[in-house]
Amino acid sequence: MPVLNRVAHLHDEITAWRRDIHAHPELGFDEHRTSAFVAERLREFGCEEVVTGIGKTGVVGVIKGQKALSNGNLKVIGLRADMDALPIEEATGLPYASKNKGLMHACGHDGHTAMLLGAARYLAKTRNFAGTAVLIFQPAEEIGTGAQGMIEDGLMDRFGIEQVYGMHNLPGLPIGTFGIRHGPVMAATDGIEIRIEGRGGHPGRPHQCIDAMQAGAQLITALQQIVAQNVDPLESAAISFHEFHSGTTQRVIPQTAELRGSMRALTPEVRELVKKRMAEVVAGIAQVTGAKIALTIEGSNAAVFNHPVPTELAMNVAKEVAGEDKVVKTPPMLGGEDFSDLAKDRPGAFIWCGNGNSAGLHHAAYDFNDEAIPFGTSFWAKLVENTLAA
Asked: What is the C-alpha to C-alpha distance for residues 248 and 59, in angstroms, rounded to an integer?
């Protein structure tokens, strides 16, 4: 079955919503305008419930089908879209470009929100399903705590969600194509912070100093060797550093240094192995240099893992919407996603929707491709109708 006719007719309206959201980006937990926009639309559509303030700025819409439930079938599924933007200055030059200086929808969350709103409008009108669809508009995905915030406010239990689904656009994947896989989809992510205390002094007397900057440079090189030397080549992990602060002037060997970065892994076993080796390497460099080195690893999100049953359901729906040859098996990626928190206690699946030949995610020239809207919106609608069949 191709794109739904009703959805195709809504394309212009959904596009207008998307561009309005794009022009007014908001950071995590500050999505007040976006949340109000979403809640207003959901009320207009006639949702049974529209609940705001879940996880600070999250919104939930509840739509009940008009078919009778059969014994043994699922009763409630959750569909999640993220709403927050990034602290990036937009460089697209588009008529609907960001009006908020220094903020930008550079990851397509404007498109995700608009597509789920489009599905809400369709489902509230047709109600051709049994059970309940719970539409989750989540804040703060980019900082990795929005899903957990909604869970702590009772999202899963309050609405009785039995399965949960997420969707994200993917630059480079053609429009009208979906990507999905069983098992690990995206990586667990951990923040790395290293503080180095050496002994500052005159560069003409290096033997009397403990160079914190040199210790930091050794750490960057040594820690990044962990993936090459200790992780099975058939597994995946990554260590990268994003900040290195040391020194304030010429002709002074710096006494302190700070490093910040991230570590990513697709399985709990590799994640723990890398953490263990990092601690050992830091201790070794401290011994060699004489510096005092403190390592802090702050866990963020677990890996996104697609469970078997919901993955098959999502895959079959994608084939109905796009055609069997337009659903591809995508490799796992080392980006992070807090959808993992939603799928931690409930079976779940995460699917990619093609964004065509656009700039990459988190790039100042990125824009969500509005031609993807009918495919993503139809996927959500058919997922509800198929999964909550009478």
From this structure: 46
> Residue 82 corresponds to which amino acid?
D
Residue 360 belongs to what H/E stretch?
none
Q: With left for phi above 0 and alpha for psi between -120 and 50, is residue 12 left, alpha or beta?
A: alpha
Is it the case that residue 102 has pLDDT exceeding 90?
Answer: yes
Q: Which residues, in sequence order, are bridge partners of residue 80?
A: 136, 166
The confidence score (pLDDT) of residue 68 equals 85
In this predicted model, what pLDDT tens digit does every residue of 210-221 receive, in sequence order? 999 999 999 999
Is CATH 3.40.50.720 the classification given to domain 5-186+303-387? no
Query: What element of type H or E holds 342?
Result: helix 339-342
Distances (CA, A) of 94 to 23, 37, 91: 10, 22, 8
Q: With CA atoms as reference, report the closest residue to 362 among 21, 167, 69, 84.
A: 84
Q: Where in the chain is the domain with CATH 3.30.70.360?
A: 188-301
Dihedral of CA 317/321/324/326: which sign? Answer: negative
Token pair for 348: 């779940």
- Integer CA distances (angstroms), 256 to 192, 245, 277, 288, 291, in order: 17, 8, 23, 16, 9
pLDDT at 18: 98
The distance from CA 100 to its chain's CA centroid, rounded to whole angstroms, is 22
Say yes or no to pLDDT of 9 above 60.
yes
The C-alpha atoms of residue 98 and residue 218 are separated, in whole angstroms, by: 41
CA 120 from centre of chain: 21
Query: Would you give the distance in Å from CA 301 to the centre of its chain?
Result: 10
Per the CB < 8 A criterion, the answer to whether 331 and 179 are in contact is no
Instruction: Give per-residue pLDDT as tens, 358-388.
Output: 999 999 999 999 999 999 999 999 999 999 9
CB atoms within 10 A of CB 47: 22
CATH 3.40.630.10 residue window(s) in the chain: 5-186+303-387
Cα–Cα separations (whole angstroms), residue 168 to 79, 113, 359: 12, 10, 15
Any idea which architecture 188-301 has in CATH? 2-Layer Sandwich (3.30)
Residues 339/147, Cβ–Cβ less than 8 Å: yes
| Token couple for 337 | 């996603």
